[in-house]
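To whoever is on call:

I kicked off a structure prediction for a single chain this morning and the downstream step that reads the tokens threw a length-mismatch warning. I double-checked the sequence; it's 410 residues and nothing unusual in it as far as I can see. Pasting both halves so you can look.
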Amino acid sequence: MYIQLEVGWMRHPFPVNSFRIVSDSQLQTVKALGLDAIRYFPARSEIASFETESVDDTDAVHGTARAPAREQVAADESQQALEPQPELPLHGLPPVWQRCDERFRAAAREYMQVFNCAATQPEQALAKSHGMVQGYLQDVLPTGDLVIRLLSESAGHRQAEHPVNVTVLCLLLGRALGMNAADLYELGLAALLHDIGKDSKPGATPLPRAQYESHVGDSVALAISMGVSSDVLTAMAQHHEFADGSGFPLHLIGEDLSVAGKVLCLVNSYDRLCNPEFAQEGQTPHEALSVLYAQYRERFDPIILKAFIRMMGVYPPGSVVQLADGRFAMVVSVNSSRPLKPQVLVYDAQVPLVQALPLDLEMFEEIGIRRSLRPDQLPREALSYLSPRQRICYFFERAAEPSAPKAAMP
């Protein structure tokens, strides 16, 4: 049965709220949550076999079919991890937000096309990659403000989320650093392809260290076959190299690293803090920035790190916060030139979520952010309403013109 748990993600141990039950252990975990009801989707379920398979008396009493073989469960769970997750919109937000979701989903599909043909059709993979990066540059290169937006819970294929996220943030950071068009293109291509040789399935058992580190060389080898430039290859090879020499595979130090390599390493590190292989280990965007600066800043170029923090804001999209007036909210977008006044979705029990509009703090000088919170620090009602993202995905749009409609009053 394909089900959806209509509770905040901190109240259950599953990586997503919507999934297909494929094992008895999952069923027992769902039952242990003590929910009054769950949502069931017949069209996405595969229960025909339950009607024909025999069940013993014990199973019949408890209303469950005999658990499938362990090998089949593992295969089903592996396949589920590779499938695109259901498209959950940001409820009640303007059409521009939905366009960001749609653009990210399209980018995720395009990346998977690159990933699937890189080894067998390298020229086609390069052409597709070139088109993707050039498309982003059309928005990034013109002057004017850009807005970094938080996307819906699952905006695309899990395996594509990380490279697309990293590409978007690298291009925005490169723009903030004043890179020219040629350098931005090479940075974007390196970011898009940096993990192209990493054949890992989301949620799978962690690889042995040596095997994990080998993905850098494997990705570079694939990129060589695709015919990318030496500067792109260099940045790809350095996406795990830290300025203090603690990275891999060559333990390079700051003076040995290219600017693109430094940018890619920083953004890759940020995204992995927010979106680790196992979602329950993820940090909020605010926590991730704090960790990068407070604990790991020796690993990164100080100018690039400061530019990244300025661009993302103290409270990047996806951060859960308490406003100065005591209300709880989630940051949903940041204008890269005015990061201290983001747009937030405010918990208001009197306003249904489908009618909620983002509050632009820039328009209300008296309303600021008091502090950042972890999702488990929210009251239960606010947690369910805001539904903080377990996986953080970003995309960007050009800032609205001054004549655009103003945000609703708080």
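Update from on-call: the warning came from a stale cache, not from the record. Cleared it. Sanity check on the structure: The first strand starts at residue 2 and ends at 4.
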